[in-house]
Amino acid sequence: MKIAVAGYGNLGKAAVRAVLNSEADELVGVFSRRSAETLGAGENIRVFPFETIALFAEEIDVVLNCTGSAHDLPETTPFIASYFNVVDSFDTHAKIPEHFQSVNKAAVMSGKTAVISVGWDPGLFSLARIYMESVMPSCRTYTFWGRGVSQGHADAIRSIDGVLFAREYTIPAEEAKESLRKGRLLNLPQEKLHRRVCYVVEKDGADREKIREEIINMPEYFKGYETEVNFISLDDFLLEHKSMAHAGNVIALRKGDAGTDRLEFLLSSPSNPQITAGILLAYGKACVRMNRKNEFGCKTVFDVRPVDLFCGAKGKETELL
After folding, report:
1. Where in the chain does DSSP place strands (E)?
2. 314: pLDDT strictly greater than 70
């Protein structure tokens, strides 16, 4: 398939590598608001201005939209869906219905297919929850993020005026996780099952206290969580915060007559962008297959059939049964 990548941050770079490592796919190019000279994408990767993407309508099967989740995707995904099949990793859970409606309108009008909120969570964790709560309808599900780097939260911090660089680490309550593994139900909200630790490099003259207040009071990202904000130098940031590792669990418990049933889904990766890019690529190719069946409009991971997701030879999926 002919694939384009929009955005060239950490996720965009990982998406480019994923496409280049796929023998069955072709990278058409990267579309960015930044100039090709500043991206450093390499001589073999074509870079085009984002605003010219519509000119490539005949050359691209699907766009992996890797622009910023907090503020860019609500604008860029509907725009791209007006011309192309597209997938994104929009991760503001509370705003997914609103994002869905906006993207669906554009994709239906253009006869394209869009799959939104593809990644760890929402994404694979969403699938884990729906399977767990379907086969154990009276269960309680608990989601733990981390320990690791959240790209979406770091992007949200960088959107604050005065912030140069940022890294956010989500740290789960390990004692709560172990209690669940022993079959003990918990009555705690997500905010009490995690804490967030932020490292920020501010621009010259920026107001640290103003930045701190904006972070800890940011709805859908930090408000309600125990949040620690640390201001550090650029040198320390580049030296101590290179890792992009992440992990997470979904745990479901159900009390039954014979005892407690437990289902657990675990993800762990040394690179959040690397595994997220792999998820985007897989769903991007499924998106094209769905479009070829005239399944237009906006979709989520719940709408994508495993047979459209699996990219093996026809019939090979039975080997996985």
Report:
1. 2-6, 26-32, 47-49, 62-65, 85-88, 113-115, 140-145, 148-149, 163-172, 194-202, 226-231, 246-256, 259-269, 297-299
2. no
